[in-house]
Design goal:
alpha/beta; seven-stranded mixed sheet; 391 residues; 14 strands; three-stranded antiparallel sheet; Aspartate Aminotransferase, domain 1; globular; 9 helices
Length: 391
């Protein structure tokens, strides 16, 4: 069997990881030259930079004025855990899960917090649960975009405006790439390394007035670690939402977050970020539509993510392999792309079906995705010669 010819052009930026995501176009370390290094985050300079991040975040995302935005420890995971441990327990909880992170939040609610009145609604990889089953007299926990399954909530129409409970949304691979209905979300969390390509470590916690009221009127029955505490003496710790982070932030990372926000503003703000992500999904959709080698893990276009795009490999030789063989072949395809400098870190998530996961968020150039599709076709062809026995 002859090897397929290598494509003529490689992606200019082969970084398609789903987190940390690719840096914005044109980024270089020079963007961090004004970082407040060697300075306290509590100095006037440090506080000013943290406040600038909060202000620019509000402006770019269009977060309502009466919502609070805080920078917290431990990435999106820390922000979600802070919300779950601080807010849940006052009433019953509905949890929606359809991929690994939602599964983790469900496990936290049922196995760590050990709440009694919990309903879990689930769907397999590539599908979305029936969100209309949510009871808004209860608290509702869900991810907006399933990073490991490529499935997103299409809109917020299913969320009641007159809800009694809180909506707690892990939005980490959706914010800055999808249109989030803020008035439908009482808690939203994300991390800088998703979508905007910032450096890792910190999470962002956005809470509505209703969530703030819950924090001041309800005390959980379990002890809260210091790093999770959002109140003091029964009052909201406003400093958390004014740049006074609970633990020491990296000012280098703060500077990188600022750079990403300034870039977003320079290209037209949220509308442009969303359009870039949707355009990128379109590039991949046109390729998949005409390819016998791959298909979307999310079969329904209405719930298909425009950031973490997950693909099944449908080449006949691949489908003929055992489950273990498909896992090995998918890893080999990723390794071939890595070795050629055509794509880094596009293996499917470890718990997901064997396949590929391509980040297509706003920091990715459509031209790089165009080039990548040719290289994936090539890599699948090369892998066929290695995993099939000549007749």
């Amino acid at each position: 069997m002859n090897l397929p010819a290598r494509p003529a052009a490689r992606p200019a930026n082969p970084n398609f990881s789903s987190g940390p995501c690719a840096k914005r176009p044109g980024w270089s370390p020079e963007a961090l030259k004004d970082a407040a290094l060697g300075r306290s985050h509590r100095s006037s300079l440090g506080k000013a930079k943290l406040q600038e991040v909060l202000d620019r975040t509000r402006d770019v995302l269009g977060v309502p004025d009466d919502y609070r935005i805080g920078i917290v420890a431990a990435s999106d995971t820390g922000a979600v855990e802070m919300a779950l441990w601080s807010l849940l327990g006052e009433r019953g909880v509905d949890v929606f899960q359809w991929e690994s992170f939602g599964l983790g939040w469900a496990a936290d609610v049922t196995k760590q917090l050990k709440l009694d009145d919990v309903r879990v609604f689930e769907a397999g990889y590539g599908e979305l649960p029936d969100m209309s089953q949510a009871d808004f007299s209860r608290d509702v926990v869900f991810t907006w975009n399933g990073t490991t399954s490529g499935v997103r909530v299409p809109d917020g129409d299913w969320i009641a405006d007159d809800r009694e409970g809180l909506t707690i949304c892990d939005a980490t691979s959706a914010v800055f790439a999808m249109d989030l209905p803020w008035t439908k979300l009482d808690v939203a969390t994300y991390s800088w390394q998703k979508v905007m390509g910032g450096e890792a470590q910190h999470g962002v916690l956005i809470i509505s007035p209703r969530a703030a009221e819950r924090l001041e009127t309800y005390t959980p029955p379990w002890p809260l670690p210091k790093i999770f505490r959002l109140t003091s003496g029964g009052k909201l710790s406003e400093g958390v939402f004014e740049g006074a982070t609970i633990n020491t932030p990296s000012m280098l990372v703060v500077e990188d977050a600022l750079d990403g926000l300034k870039w977003a503003e320079s290209i037209g703000g949220l509308e442009t970020l969303i359009n870039r992500s949707e355009t990128n999904l379109g590039v991949l959709a046109r390729w998949v539509e005409n390819s016998p080698l791959v298909e979307f893990l999310a079969a329904d276009p209405a719930v298909r993510s425009c950031t973490s795009v997950c693909l099944n490999i449908t080449a006949p030789w691949f489908l003929g392999l055992s489950e273990d063989g498909r896992a090995k072949a998918a890893k080999r395809i990723g390794a071939l792309l890595e070795d050629e400098g055509a794509a880094h870190d596009i293996d499917a998530y470890r718990d997901a079906p064997a396949g590929l996961r391509i980040w297509a968020g706003a920091t990715i150039e459509a031209s790089d995705l165009e080039a990548l599709t040719q290289w994936i076709d090539w890599a699948i062809g090369v892998a066929e010669t290695e995993f099939t026995v000549p007749a």
